[in-house]
Structures are given as structure tokens and as C-alpha cells.
From TrEMBL, chain A:
GO terms for biological process: cytochrome complex assembly; protein-heme linkage. Keywords: Cell membrane, Cytochrome c-type biogenesis, Heme, Iron, Membrane, Metal-binding, Signal, Signal-anchor, Transmembrane, Transmembrane helix. Belongs to the CcmE/CycJ family. Residues 1-23 form the signal peptide. Its main location: membrane. This is Cytochrome c-type biogenesis protein CcmE. It comes from Gluconobacter albidus. NCBIfam families: PRK13254.1-1, PRK13254.1-5. It comes from the Bacteria. Residues 29-167 are extracellular. The gene is ccmE.
From TrEMBL, chain B:
NCBIfam families: ccmC (TIGR01191). It comes from Gluconobacter cerevisiae. Required for the export of heme to the periplasm for the biogenesis of c-type cytochromes. This is Heme exporter protein C. The keyword Endoplasmic reticulum does not apply. It is a multi-pass membrane protein. Residues 11-187 form the Cytochrome c assembly protein domain. The gene is ccmC.
TrEMBL record, chain C:
The chain crosses the membrane at residues 12-31. The lineage of its organism: Bacteria, Pseudomonadati, Pseudomonadota, Alphaproteobacteria, Acetobacterales. Keywords: Membrane, Transmembrane, Transmembrane helix. It comes from Gluconobacter cerevisiae. This is Heme exporter protein D. It comes from the Bacteria.
């Protein structure tokens, strides 16, 4: 074995060691890496009320109620993952992207009655990038209602342009 | 120790690189300027606004190329590391020195533009989710590499240490890429994948593609220029050292 | 028509930072290459002159 091939093997062996170490570490910590819990997870094993968790899911259509209390907006809405829904209460201004059908992540605690009191609500954007005209056209023709979930398959609209959508 | 003909032999390869760089540089630079001018104007003024994000979607046209370049430059560092550790390629160490700061800039810009998008869209500058954190780790790997490769008086030792760091850090690249699939993250999954149709309108995909090509050509041009300069600098240093030795020899004689 | 959020300061900051950094990197590299070429030429010329005077 020449010195070059020996060095090559040493490098490959080191890479394999570091790689497997990292993979094992990530596996062990994977529950901590998860940024948020789904409503069904929260329902199945409710965390104690003194533990702050992140709850992630879709804002259920028709569940959003906003009232104004002495100038501060008080919001109540249901967050669902399709299997379970959790009632979320949040006092404060919601982000721009917040709407029914949007995915959100709320930071807060689970109450004894199963409700969730949020101290912070973040809007989660999905991987769909759609011009406004196309979205308006899809909504107008009834092909998609953003309040009920994700946009239809991209191949059905990704070549639609403003002109085609408008005409 | 007198420089031997071996030294010239060592420079055969950098010489070849210099010739290659001379031919390619005008094309890379010209292409980068044309693509960037077209891409930036298209992205800023012509591409449609997103139905939810409005005009803020335009940040994507600089954010995604920076993310792509930060990852590719690091892959370049890792390849230089293998070439340096196994084949002792003289050009690889010079390239690693020159690629590092460029990649670090791309990683920093990726984080900053992402933050500028996240504040109005998500409602926060920063979250510790897997995608953002692994990208921050990549930025710190760049900083470590930049510091390590210059940390020793004897350049060869720093280069060896930096090559090992570059190789160990390459594990972060798949973590960045797949973080949005493996774990729940606030960051959205990739819109463009090798397997599926892009979940993005063609009217947004084209400027994104053109900006990405433009920034890639530009970074290639910058790296080629920096590497050419480094070769010239090191040749000048070698000649100075040799002339000093010659003078000492002639004084001794 | 629904309300579209516009955040031009954020967009302008992103583009200015990215393009500014690219410009600084590119111009800096070009200047450095010119300087290093000139320096190498000077050192080489110096060495050649000395060799000629020595022989």
C-alpha cells in the first residue's frame, strides 16, 4: 500500500466515524430537535401545565374569533393536524401571514381543561409560491379554498400567468 | 537549503491553473454580470407578488442563491481537504484559503436575508429550528476554518488542521438539506426537488434560476481571481526568499 | 382582493447587502490580482537584472 492510498483510507475511516457519531447523536436527540408538537400528540400525552411547549398545526376554517379588549386584540382559534384539534387563546397582534387554513406554531402552555394559552404565535409558510392573480383565479373558479388546506398540485397551475388567469 | 528544480516542478500545476483562469475569467465575469442584471431586475420588478407574502417573496431571489453557494463552497472546501490530505496537492491548500471567506460571506448573507424575511413573514427574526440552527453551524464552521488555516506559523500545519475540520464539517451539509424533511421545522420544505414538480409558479422559478446562475458564476469568478492572485503572491514570495538565499551564498563565497 | 403585506425596507436591505457584499468581494479580488501581478513582475525583473550582472 502506498502512502497515498493509506492516507486515503485514513480519511475515509475518519469520515465514517464522524458520520456515524453524528447520525447516532441526531437519532438520540431527534425528539428535542422537533420544533413543535402536533395537536394529536398534545391530546394523546398532555404535557404538564408548567411546561412551555410549541404547538404546530393548521388553523381550522371558521374557528377564528377576534375580539378587542381595551385596545388589545384577543384571539381564539383551533389548531388541527387532521386528527385532533386544540383550542388556542392568544392576546396580541397576529403575524401578517396568519389566516384560517394557514399553518402556525404557537409557543405556550397546555391548560388543565385541554386548552392552550399562547404567549407567541408564528405563521409557518409552506413551500407553495403562487402569484396573487393565479391564487385569485383558483379561488374564483372554486378549484381551491385556502381556508381548507394546501394548494392543489403545482403542475395544474405553475404555468398559469396573470394574463391567462385574468382572461 | 537551496531551492531545487523540484520547486519548479511543484508549480507546474498552478501554472496550468493560471492559464485556465486567464481563459475562463472574462467569460465568468461577463456571464455573472449579464445574468445578475437580468435576474435582479426580473426578481425585483417583473416577477409577480406572492398571494400571501406580497412583495416580500422577492427576498427569496437573493436568499436561495446564498444558501446554495454557502453549501457548495463548503463542499469545495471539503474536496480541497481530501486533495490536500491524501494527494498533498499544492493548489488545494491555496484554494481552501481563498474559498473560506467567500463561503462565509454567502452563509452570513443567507442568514441575514432569511432573518429579514422571517421578521415580517413568520413574526420573528430567529428561531432555533433545525434548518436555521444547522445553517448557523455551517457559518461557524467557516469561521473556524478561516481562523485555523491561518493560526500556525508553519502554514502546512494550519492547512492540515483546516482540511480535517472541513472534512468533519461536511456532515452538516446533509443535515441542512434534509432538516426540513426529517424534523418539524418552522422553515418551509424545499419547493424545488429532484423528484417532484416544483411547487412554485414558473413566473417565480425563472428569475430564481437566473439569479442563482448569476451568483454562482460571480462566486466562481471571485474564487478564480483570488486564487490567481494567491499564486502570484506565493511566487513572488518564493523568488524573494531565493534571492535572499543567493545573496547569502554569494556573501559566504 | 385581500390585503397584501408589503415590506420594501426589508427587501431593499436584503438586495443592498447581498449585491454590496458581492461587489466588494469582486472588486477587492480584481484589485488584489492586479497588485500581485505587478509585484511578481517587479520581483522577477529584479532577479533577472541581478543574474545578468552576476554572470
Amino acid at each position: 500500500m502506498t502512502r497515498k492510498t493509506r492516507r486515503l483510507w485514513i480519511v475515509i475511516a475518519c469520515l465514517a466515524c464522524v458520520g456515524s457519531a453524528a447520525a447516532l447523536t441526531l437519532r438520540a436527540f431527534s425528539s428535542n430537535i422537533v420544533f413543535f408538537m402536533a395537536p394529536s400528540q398534545v391530546k394523546a400525552s398532555p404535557p404538564s401545565p408548567d411546561r412551555t411547549i410549541r404547538l404546530g398545526g393548521m388553523v381550522m376554517a371558521g374557528s377564528l374569533h377576534r375580539i378587542n379588549e381595551n385596545g388589545t386584540p384577543v384571539n381564539a382559534f383551533q389548531v388541527t393536524d387532521g386528527q385532533a384539534a386544540v383550542e388556542v387563546h392568544y392576546t396580541g397582534i397576529l403575524p401578517d401571514l396568519f389566516r384560517e387554513g394557514q399553518s402556525v406554531v404557537a409557543l405556550g402552555t397546555v391548560q388543565k381543561d385541554g386548552g392552550f394559552t399562547a404567549s407567541e404565535v408564528l405563521a409557518k409558510h409552506d413551500e407553495t409560491y403562487m402569484p396573487k392573480e393565479v391564487a385569485d383565479e383558483l379561488k374564483r373558479t372554486g378549484k381551491w379554498d385556502p381556508r381548507f388546506g394546501k394548494a392543489p398540485d403545482a403542475s395544474s397551475w405553475d404555468t398559469m400567468t396573470a394574463k391567462k388567469a385574468g382572461g | 537549503m537551496r531551492p531545487t528544480p523540484n520547486l519548479l516542478h511543484r508549480y507546474a500545476n498552478p501554472g496550468q491553473f493560471l492559464r485556465l483562469a486567464r481563459t475562463l475569467l472574462p467569460w465568468l465575469t461577463g456571464g455573472a454580470i449579464v445574468f445578475l442584471v437580468v435576474g435582479v431586475i426580473w426578481g425585483l420588478f417583473i416577477a409577480p407578488a406572492d398571494w400571501q407574502q406580497g412583495d416580500t417573496v422577492r427576498i427569496m431571489y437573493v436568499h436561495v442563491p446564498m444558501a446554495w453557494l454557502a453549501s457548495s463552497c463548503y463542499l469545495g472546501l471539503a474536496i480541497c481537504g481530501v486533495l490536500s490530505l491524501v494527494w498533498r496537492h499544492p493548489l488545494a491548500d491555496l484554494a481552501a484559503i481563498e474559498i473560506g471567506p467567500v463561503g462565509a460571506c454567502a452563509a452570513a448573507l443567507c442568514l441575514i436575508t432569511g432573518s429579514l424575511w422571517g421578521e415580517p413573514m413568520w413574526g420573528t427574526w430567529w428561531v432555533w429550528d433545525a434548518r436555521l440552527t444547522s445553517m448557523l453551524v455551517l457559518f461557524f464552521l467557516y469561521l473556524g476554518h478561516i481562523a485555523l488555516i491561518r493560526a500556525f506559523d508553519e502554514p502546512a500545519r494550519g492547512q492540515r488542521a483546516a482540511a480535517i475540520l472541513a472534512l468533519a464539517g461536511v456532515i452538516d451539509l446533509p443535515i441542512i438539506k434534509f432538516s426540513v424533511q426529517w424534523w418539524n421545522t418552522l422553515h418551509q420544505p424545499d419547493s424545488i426537488t429532484l423528484t417532484g414538480a416544483p411547487t412554485m409558479s414558473m413566473m417565480m422559478l425563472w428569475p430564481l434560476l437566473i439569479c442563482t446562475i448569476g451568483f454562482t458564476l460571480g462566486v466562481a469568478a471571485v474564487i478564480f481571481t483570488r486564487l490567481s492572485a494567491a499564486i502570484h503572491e506565493s511566487r513572488a514570495r518564493q523568488m524573494m526568499a531565493r534571492s535572499r538565499l543567493d545573496r547569502r551564498d554569494s556573501q559566504a563565497a | 382582493m385581500m390585503h397584501l403585506p408589503n415590506h420594501w425596507p426589508y427587501i431593499a436591505a436584503s438586495y443592498a447587502l447581498t449585491l454590496g457584499c458581492s461587489l466588494v468581494l469582486g472588486v477587492g479580488a480584481a484589485l488584489r490580482l492586479r497588485k500581485s501581478k505587478a509585484r511578481l513582475a517587479a520581483v522577477e525583473g529584479h532577479a533577472r537584472r541581478r543574474e545578468r550582472s552576476a554572470s
